[in-house]
Design brief:
There is one protein chain. The protein has helices at 14-35, 40-45, 49-53, 61-68, 74-79, 97-103. The chain is mainly alpha-helical. It folds into two domains: 13-56; 57-110, no CATH class.
Length: 110
């Protein structure tokens, strides 16, 4: 009996292959996400790639701004010399994502 039987891939359902590739891709993405020094603010909100992919999010400009810390925020603009100060108009604290979400007196009602 010969052991040189040709492999046959037509016996594996396409859905199984697709599912396995998706699992491997998410694992690779998670490893790269964990090892990267970029996206620190975003990582605080979404440390787990698989969990984030399962969320239904309404991605708006303001949502993206808050999650990334990029946009019309003085601390961000000041880094690029677009704003004279990183301070928030409400006082002496830097206008950061955390400040806007948790401390800013101008947004307290919201």
């Amino acid at each position: 009996m010969s052991t040189d039987t040709p492999e046959s891939y037509d016996k594996v359902p396409k859905s199984v292959v697709k599912s396995e590739l998706e699992i491997l891709s998410v694992k690779k993405w998670q490893r790269e996400w964990d090892q990267s020094s970029k996206g620190q603010i975003t990582k605080q909100f979404f440390p787990d790639i698989a969990a984030r992919l399962n969320m239904k999010l309404n991605l708006t400009y303001n949502f993206t701004l808050m999650v990334t810390g990029h946009g019309n925020i003085n601390s961000y603009l000041h880094r690029f010399k677009i704003s004279d100060t990183p301070s928030c108009p409400c006082g002496p604290q830097d206008q950061t994502t955390d400040h806007l979400l948790f401390e800013c007196q101008l947004l307290k009602k919201e």
